[in-house]
Amino acid sequence: MSGSKAPAIHPGEILRELYLEPLEMKPYSLAKKLGVPRTRIERIVAEKVGITTDTALRLGRFFRTTPEFWMNLQVAYDLKIQASNLEATLATIPQVEAA
């Protein structure tokens, strides 16, 4: 299995460093604007939970991105973490022969 050796980047890090910090916005303020509980955004930027489809839709609307942008960050992170956790197991799975 091939994959990048770059570290997994949590979407909360992207939200915090590329969106909130430049705008000098606190998680509480963003949560209020998005209409979600304060703890949801606080836990995302603390990298304790991932981004749900609901949150991706709201972030996409607010930041003028797409919800897919936020979901792709989450999926890439999840795949990187899971690939690392399953590395030994995945190595034992045979691959189909190329035609």
Short description:
The chain has 99 residues and is mainly α. It contains six helices and no strands.
Give the helix/strand layout.
Layout: H1 11-23, H2 27-34, H3 38-45, H4 53-63, H5 67-85, H6 87-91
Helix pairs in contact: 2-3, 4-5
Describe the structure.
By secondary structure, the protein is an all-alpha fold. The protein contains six helices and no strands. Helix 2 crosses helix 3 (38-45). The chain is elongated.
List keywords for this structure.
mainly alpha; 99 residues; single chain
Shape: elongated
Mean pLDDT: 95
Number of helices: 6
- How are helices and strands ordered from N to C? HHHHHH
Name the helicity range: 55-70%
Give the amount of beta strand, in percent. under 5%
N-C termini distance: 18 Å
The main β sheet shows up as: none
